[in-house]
């Protein structure tokens, strides 16, 4: 064995890549799972343990659906399941749902994400859209009532950690949770939240989007490990900042032109660090990624300001996902030695 | 021999020449009216009637139609039958069904399945086989419309023929909107293509074995 290797080692001309490192799909995926944990813990403090149930249900149904479809497609089930991509999809989907949703919402969402968005297009690495986001958009259209209500928050925070918020009678005396408008609500008289609330995450919203600190913690870990680029979130958030400053908002809410409020409220941080940086559905080159990030930022603010929806992160990311092949074509790096044809 | 051929002209519309899943023709009405099985059936019935009648008449008069102006002639014949269907449906079908089919009944005039069969079959064949061809393709299309619309109605409205499927099911309204049509049709097309691929692979294997 050793001799064989030594014999061959003199003249090996293998195909690229020549430099390999230890990064692999499972490593990156499980790192993403780890980086999403703080936001999950923060959500349990904010919304009670029912949202843990939603997250787990979403993960389990994503894994189950993935196993099922891998079996149908005759791809080795166990080794592909171990890469953790289904778990990431499950967690990300749950993080975009309201904390009080019925059990079937995450189940249908995971099914749609894995079967339609991921495997119908050829499986991991071939999907056009981020599976979790596309499933969220599908659920938004399929069950608009279920996804626009249930914005509940525990009133006393940590003290009621183990109180199931669905068991609370809204007319009883023991009210532990209150339904309030989300930070980006456009209705007249919608209240503005304090910046510390937005940082910690004790505001109504989707499960994983409220706690900015926890999300930044996870995002910083991924940037430190170099699994995501710093410039995609940076350009995205900076674009939102500038667009909020220069565009005239349609609604007269107190925070309408406050860029800091727009960055901290809603799903921007979650989207910027965990969804815009999705390797499969974003462009390949650095210049392409910057176009992608800026485009998403512009669309996010346009949707937030001028559409019927309060939040635009999901749709703007999906639109830019769609444009990704086009961006890739325009930002194709020049081959070394090749000349650019003059039109 | 002749009878076998006749049977083949009739059955080819279901699988081999299925207008929706194999020929991928007439997609505009297929996507638009398949929100419920009732709509799908009515649309399929109307189109089948027009297809059979126009095939028959075109085949009868095919030697009188000059080649240069055959398309306008087809359209005149087809339009006559579409007008008949439209008036009949207005007279005998419930108004809400007419309202939901709307513009798509008059648009059968330019339905590419009917034009395609007129041009490539009825113009070249005898009346009897043309009728068989029309019935086969029309029923094939109706069947496909029923498949798509029953999937969409069950998932999107929780009903089948207007009857509730299950009390506890919360329908996903997106399935009776435009995205639902594209998703269902895309998956079904994928399924039929996959079947075709399997079949040709199998034939290839057989061929190589025999070689």
UniProtKB/TrEMBL annotation, chain B:
Part of a membrane-bound complex that couples electron transfer with translocation of ions across the membrane. It holds the Pfam family Rnf-Nqr. The complex is composed of six subunits: RnfA, RnfB, RnfC, RnfD, RnfE and RnfG. It comes from the Bacteria. Keywords: Cell membrane, Electron transport, Membrane, Translocase, Transmembrane, Transmembrane helix, Transport. Its main location: membrane. This is Ion-translocating oxidoreductase complex subunit E. InterPro entries: NqrDE/RnfAE, RnfE. One of its GO terms (biological process) is electron transport chain. It is a multi-pass membrane protein. GO terms for cellular component: endomembrane system; plasma membrane. HAMAP family: RsxE_RnfE. The chain crosses the membrane at residues 42-61, 73-93, 99-116, 128-151, 171-194. Belongs to the NqrDE/RnfAE family. PANTHER family: ELECTRON TRANSPORT COMPLEX PROTEIN RNFE (PTHR30586), ION-TRANSLOCATING OXIDOREDUCTASE COMPLEX SUBUNIT E (PTHR30586:SF0). It is an enzyme of class 7 (translocase). Its EC number is 7.-.-.-. It is found in: Cell membrane; Endomembrane system. It comes from Candidatus Jettenia ecosi.
């Amino acid at each position: 064995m050793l001799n064989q290797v030594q014999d061959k080692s003199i003249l090996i001309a293998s195909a690229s890549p020549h430099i390999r490192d230890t990064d692999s799909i499972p490593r990156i995926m499980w790192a993403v799972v780890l980086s999403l944990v703080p936001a999950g813990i923060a959500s349990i403090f904010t919304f009670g343990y029912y949202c843990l149930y939603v997250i787990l249900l979403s993960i389990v149904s994503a894994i189950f659906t993935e196993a099922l479809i891998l079996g149908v497609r005759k791809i080795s089930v166990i080794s592909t399941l171990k890469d953790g991509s289904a778990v990431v999809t499950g967690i990300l989907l749950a993080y975009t749902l309201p904390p009080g949703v019925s059990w079937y919402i995450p189940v249908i969402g995971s099914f749609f994400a894995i079967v339609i968005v991921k495997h119908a297009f050829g499986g991991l690495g071939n999907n056009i859209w981020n599976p979790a986001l596309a499933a969220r958009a599908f659920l938004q259209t399929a069950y608009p009532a279920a996804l626009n209500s249930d914005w509940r928050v525990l009133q006393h925070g940590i003290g009621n950690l183990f109180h199931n918020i669905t068991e609370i009678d809204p007319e009883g005396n023991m009210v532990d949770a209150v339904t309030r408008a989300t930070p980006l609500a456009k209705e007249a008289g919608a209240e503005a939240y304090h910046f510390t609330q937005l940082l910690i995450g004790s505001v109504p919203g989707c499960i994983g989007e409220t706690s900015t600190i926890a999300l930044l913690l996870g995002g910083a870990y991924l940037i430190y490990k170099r699994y995501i680029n710093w410039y995609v979130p940076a350009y995205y958030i900076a674009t939102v900042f500038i667009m909020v400053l220069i565009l005239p908002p349609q609604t007269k809410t107190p925070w309408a032109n406050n860029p800091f409020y727009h960055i901290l409220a809603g799903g921007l941080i979650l989207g910027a660090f965990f969804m815009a940086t999705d390797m499969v559905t974003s462009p390949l080159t650095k210049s392409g990624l910057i176009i992608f990030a800026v485009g998403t930022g512009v669309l996010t603010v346009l949707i937030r300001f001028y559409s019927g929806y309060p939040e635009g992160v999901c749709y703007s990311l999906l639109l830019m996902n769609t444009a990704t092949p086009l961006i890739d074509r325009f930002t194709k790096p020049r081959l070394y030695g090749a000349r650019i044809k003059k039109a | 021999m002749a009878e076998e051929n006749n049977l083949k002209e009739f059955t080819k519309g279901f699988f081999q020449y299925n207008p929706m899943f194999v020929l991928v023709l007439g997609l505009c009405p297929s996507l638009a009216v398949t929100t419920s099985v009732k709509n799908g059936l009515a649309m399929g019935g109307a189109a089948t009637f027009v297809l059979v009648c126009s095939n028959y008449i075109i085949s009868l008069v095919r030697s009188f139609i000059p080649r240069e102006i055959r398309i306008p002639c087809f359209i005149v014949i087809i339009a006559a039958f579409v007008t008949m269907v439209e008036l009949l449906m207005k007279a005998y079908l419930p108004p809400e069904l007419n309202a939901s089919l709307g513009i798509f009944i008059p648009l059968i005039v330019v339905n590419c399945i009917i034009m395609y069969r007129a041009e490539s079959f009825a113009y070249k064949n005898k009346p009897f086989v043309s009728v068989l061809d029309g019935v086969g393709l029309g029923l094939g299309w109706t069947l496909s419309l029923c498949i798509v619309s029953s999937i969409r109605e069950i998932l999107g409205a929780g009903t089948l023929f207007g009857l509730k499927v299950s009390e506890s099911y919360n329908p996903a309204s997106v399935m009776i909107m435009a995205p639902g049509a594209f998703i269902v049709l895309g998956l079904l097309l994928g399924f039929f293509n996959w079947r075709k691929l399997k079949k040709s692979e199998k034939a290839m294997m057989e061929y190589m074995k025999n070689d």
